[in-house]
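Quick one, probably user error.
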């Protein structure tokens, strides 16, 4: 479900970071909205499943040969994905609070927002000039 939404959204927007941010925002919003509901509520189940799918997709992308992220960052994302999967099981088993899943997603969103802002900022007037 999340992968199809990701792919559809990615086609509509040219900047992959914007797409990732929007997808994280949608899924995090679902987690927040369902945070205090009973774990058997369909909205909780869907929110957790979409979040797991998002993180699984990120881990899969990070394990591909053509991924251009630094190896250490890819390893951290894969590690986070594994943690999200395990922790989500604890949430569904009523042994853990949903808060840390929301916090992780918000942290990633903050990082994406910073990178988007840096990418959108105009280059200094003398950038790239060999005379500077």
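Nope, works fine. Designed sequence:
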């Amino acid at each position: 479900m999340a992968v199809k939404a990701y792919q559809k959204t990615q086609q509509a927007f040219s900047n992959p970071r914007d797409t990732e941010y929007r997808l994280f925002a949608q899924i995090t919003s679902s987690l927040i909205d369902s945070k205090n509901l009973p774990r058997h509520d369909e909205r909780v189940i869907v929110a957790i499943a979409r979040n797991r799918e998002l993180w699984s997709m990120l881990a899969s992308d990070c394990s591909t040969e053509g991924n251009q992220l630094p190896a250490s960052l890819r390893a951290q994302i894969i590690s986070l994905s594994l943690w999200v999967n395990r922790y989500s099981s604890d949430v569904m088993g009523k042994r853990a609070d949903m808060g840390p899943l929301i916090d992780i997603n918000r942290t990633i969103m903050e990082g994406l927002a910073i990178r988007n802002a840096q990418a959108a900022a105009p280059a200094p007037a003398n950038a790239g000039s060999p005379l500077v």
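The helical segments are 2-12, 16-34, 42-62, 71-92, 99-120.
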